[in-house]
Design goal:
- The chain is of the alpha/beta class.
- The chain is built from eight helices and eleven strands.
- The strands form two sheets. The protein has a seven-stranded mixed sheet with strand order 6-7-8-3-9-10-11, sandwiched between helices.
- α2 runs parallel beside α4.
- Bound molecules: adenosine-5'-triphosphate (ATP) and magnesium ion.
- Adenosine-5'-triphosphate binds next to α1.
């Protein structure tokens, strides 16, 4: 069966800085990939490549076997950490907008039965994310959690095949985050989505998805910190991963955070430390591998 997303030898460079290197990944329809990694290692860049907002320096990305179009399309929806909704439009109009632009690309306005249909669809989607009571509210009258629900509705009303989430719950209180986890899990199942979600919270990554991808540099040169990019260093079926693996990844990610300003001490320590290996027993399964994309 064709993978929903197939990534072949993907590299992304900005000038002399290598951000991502040698990423090979095959993601099936229905996978829910959570992504963790040190700040600045290229996670958002990876999502922007999937969205089509950036193009690879080398390699290719296939969506259902076809090369990704060079610009964002309705088959991919994205939700950022915050501020991705339009402040001057009501919740309902925010969600209708994508449908209107698709139906009337030039004017962005639909009339008659088409407009009523778009309105009903948008209202149903807002209902599905728990905002059925707030159709006419403007974003600044919505809480942070409600704004993220609105952003989800805005993406999902276009029926994307791929949903990209860039730390969508990072700014929310813990209680509200738990509600949002439930919501995203339900929307993922009900809408037949393939999800890529970046999170800084490794536990969130472990419990929410079906697959955890860790982005990290496989090579460091203290004299040339921009010479090497991040690859996928762990690729784990998380529903079955264990506590020890979680702790090991947590240690790896914080080591990379510490390395970011290129401390020579940290570099030395990492050289004398044996390479981490995820538990390869019954728990971790065949999909779990450290250095998954090593050449
Ligand atoms: N358009 C761009 N031009 C030049 N450099 C860029 C561009 N976009 C990203 N970068 C660089 O690429 C690197 C990775 O950035 P990215 O935003 O992908 O990191 P991240 O893993 O999402 O970090 P964070 O966890 O802090 O959000 C950074 O060093 C950043 O400065
Ligand atoms: Mg980011």
């Amino acid at each position: 069966m064709t993978a929903r997303i197939e990534i072949r030898n993907l590299w992304k460079e900005y000038g002399e800085q290598v951000v991502l290197e040698h990423i090979n990944l095959s993601v099936a329809a229905g996978d829910f990939c959570t992504i963790v990694g040190a700040s600045g290692c290229g996670k958002t860049t990876f999502l922007r490549l999937l969205l089509g907002e950036e193009s690879p320096s080398r390699g290719e990305i296939l969506l259902d076997g076809e090369p990704l179009t060079a610009e964002p399309g309705p088959d991919r929806g994205i939700v950022f950490q915050r501020y991705s909704v339009f402040p001057h439009l009501s919740a309902l109009r925010n969600v209708m907008l994508g449908l209107e632009l698709r139906g009337a690309p030039l004017s962005g306005r639909l009339f008659g039965a088409k407009r009523r249909r778009a309105r009903d669809e948008a209202a149903a989607m807002l209902e599905a994310v728990g905002l059925g009571h707030a159709l006419e509210k403007y974003p600044d009258a919505l809480s942070g959690g409600m704004q993220q629900r609105l952003a989800l509705a805005q993406s999902l009303v276009m029926h994307p095949r791929i949903l990209l989430l860039d730390e969508p719950f990072g700014a929310l209180d813990p209680g509200i985050r738990a509600d949002m986890h439930q919501l995203v899990g339900r929307l993922w199942r009900e809408n037949d989505l393939t999800v890529f979600m970046i999170t800084h919270d490794l536990k969130e990554g472990f419990h929410l998805g079906t697959r955890l991808l860790v982005f990290d540099k496989l090579r460091h040169d203290p004299d040339a910190p921009r010479a090497y990019g991040a690859g996928v260093t762990y690729d784990l079926p998380v529903a079955r991963a264990d506590q020890r693996t979680l702790e090991r990844i947590e240690a790896d990610v914080s080591r990379s955070e510490a390395l970011a300003p290129q401390s020579a001490e940290a570099e030395q320590a990492s050289e004398t430390r044996p390479a981490a290996q995820p538990t390869a027993g019954a728990d971790a399964g065949a999909g779990a591998r450290k250095g998954a994309t090593t050449p």
